[in-house]
Amino acid sequence: xxxxxxxxxxxxxxxxxxxxxxxxxxxxxxxxxxxxxxxxxxxxxxxxxxxxxxxxxxxxxxxxxxxxxxxxxxxxxxx
Length: 79
Fold this sequence. Notes:
- The chain has 4 helices and no strands.
- With 79 residues, the protein is mainly α.
């Protein structure tokens, strides 16, 4: 799990600049929480994809990945 922590830590560094304009006055969660949640969700999608018995080729999974990142979880569950 140590490697997973280091891996996540690197992605948190990468994602942080994308939250430079995060508005704490209107946001329901802290900036740090939003960054960690984004990184964990992204890594979870990738991990789940790669651990499938026959993962979809990257070129095809690209659209699924974008759909998963843009769709609210409640809509995915209701589908």
